[in-house]
Amino acid sequence: MPERPLLEICDLVVRYGPHTVLNGASLKASRAERIALLGPSGSGKTTLLRSINGFVPAASGSVRVDDVEVTSLRGQHLRALRSRVGVVSQRHDLIEMLLAYQNVMAGALGRWSNWRALRFLLYPRASELEEARSALRRVDLEHKLRARTARLSGGEHQRIAIARALVQNPLLLLADEPIASLDPELSEQTLALLCGLAHESGVTLICTLHQPLLAERFFDRILELRNGRIEAERNGNGSRAGRESGLALARGQA
Amino acid sequence: MELFHIIGQFFPPDLSAKYLAAALGPLMQTLSMAAAAMLMAIVAGLGAAVWVGARLPGARFVYRALSVIRSIPDLTLAILCVVIVGIGPAAGTLALAIFYTAALGKVCGDLFTTAAREPVDALQATGATRLAVAFFGLLPLRLKDILSYGSYEFESAVRASVIVGAVGGGGLGTELAGTINALDFHRTTTLILMLIVLVALIDLLARWIKHKPAMLVGILPLAGLALWVNRPSMLALSHSMSTFASMLPPHLPAAAVGNLPGLLVETLAIAVGGTLFAIIPALPLGLLASRNMTPAFVSLPARRILEAFRAVPEVVWGLVLVSLIGVGPKAGIVALALHGTGSLGRLYAESFENIDTAPVDAITATGAPPIARAAFAYVPLALPPIAVHTLFRLEWNVRAATVVGVIGAGGIGQALYNAQQLFFYRQMAAYVLVTWILVSVVDLSSTRFRRGLNLMEVYG
Q1: How do residues B182-224 score in pLDDT, each as one tens digit?
Q2: Which positions in chain B have a beta carbon within 8 angstroms of at least one beta carbon in chain A?
Q3: CATH code matching the domain that covers A24-84+170-254, chosen among 3.40.50.300, 3.40.50.720, 3.10.450.50, 2.30.33.40
Q4: Which residues contact residue B395 at a Cβ distance below 8 angstroms, ignoring those fewer than 6 apart?
Q5: Exposure of B361 by Cβ count < 10 A (0-12 exposed, 13-18 middle, 19+ buried)?
Q6: A69: which strand partners?
């Protein structure tokens, strides 16, 4: 019997007022698969990603993550799902007033109690700092553990956001245009890092971007979103290009 | 238990038709004092502001004088006016008029001097006189800001007219002090409730005027009437002059000079303590009151509670507390904390509402529970504006600490009031001078400090 897909979206329709953004979008992703989502601006890529962790109400259709229907989740159950879905976005969305390790460990908030979250801000335990350190090590920022987030560069913000997603120990990693504001060299490094990490930890990666060539180079499968649905699909070279070399590329140039 | 017993004495409020009708008089008097004072302040203050804005000869001196007058606390001014004009609404009105003339004049002067350069230059290029430039350029350019600041000041003047009443300036304040002295606490509650409703109504009226500035024309004759009603009844100029002369030169006996450092420290302690005890409840209440954080059935009641705390000025809380826990700095600290909770809570709520939503979404996306979300996203994101608001509050509270002292809450204010009661006018004048120096020094250093903090914000 074939394995059930980790993510299964069926005929998803999303409307903002009179505006139909997704109009019957469907996609399947298996474990550890790396998928690039291409499409013009305004085609609904971000909406599709946000529907996967329950930030967008669906008009009809279904979204299943690890056999759990997302569209009807509320409260605690929705939080439990979100804690297993990591998000990295274009603006990185870090809290600039906090220190680097505090931003990284925000990824653990889904499994921590309110009380533990408060205690951590005031008095982090050695084991928690160690967890932050090892996540930062994976993105080569170990030396910035106690840095003020506001003083770090854009590229470093990006990697802290990735480390935060890693701490979530996710089943699924959603990257919303992670390279939109980066120069070509940094773009390649970032994609290599994301794809390498996804491979290392067997995480399914879904990444929106605008560059077909990069999509082809780094991802297993490339989907094109047009008019609110997936209209084209092809395989990329991600698997052949060597998953290990992707990580090596990121490490070597960082 | 004793605390509940004491608070219980204030309930239920006396809502009998007879008392409500009787309290209507002082209520109208308070309103008319504020209206009359604002009329004078608008005429004189705008005049001074145009003078400053048009850079007429002596503009810099006018601006300095406005700054000096503005840094005398309103209640201190009221005591001076009671001494000079005699007990009654005229003294309160005069004190308010002087205070708000300086406040309006200074702020509008600032508005004019920072108005857009180009339209003003274009007018000057036509060869218009400086005064014409002010009326055709500066005034229309800044009309909106003046209206919005003016309506804010009117609300504040209504509150202040209650305050000046407490030292014999007439109106609701005098009545309020009377009920407390007579231990008639049920009626105290009635008057406080009336004040809360009045301030809410003024707030409504202010929003209306901001929407339709033409409404002001309808209000002007009423304000004129109020001015006539509150004129000094028997203004004997020679008597006023001789009273004023008896304050000069300011003088403190040696024993009082020795007490001065202690009094100043006590005043500063009231300000710092009042601010600290306001921050503690204001943070959670502000979070609850922010509309992006909590559902409407939580945020709306939280907002109303904050408004009620804020509607009652420090001095009124002070009057109540002095009667409850006795004369001394403790009453002052609690009074400042209660009013400050309302003010800070509202400003904190606004800070929380104005934060960038994207980082909050990012934290929500990790599946964080609500309190963790507040601690990791809302509070750190809102921290810079919250710090600025809190510093402003501390600065304001130094002024307020000198004021609540007057009604028995300790510090320099109490010494000032005692001197007035004993007719030691030269000593009183000395305390006024010391108060003014204290407030000015704190204003100045706070402005410097905030400027420094801005720089720090740029560097993260």
Answers
A1: 888 888 888 888 888 887 888 788 778 777 777 777 777 888 8
A2: 358-359, 361-373, 375-377, 380-381, 383-384, 460
A3: 3.40.50.300
A4: B442, B443, B446
A5: middle
A6: A64
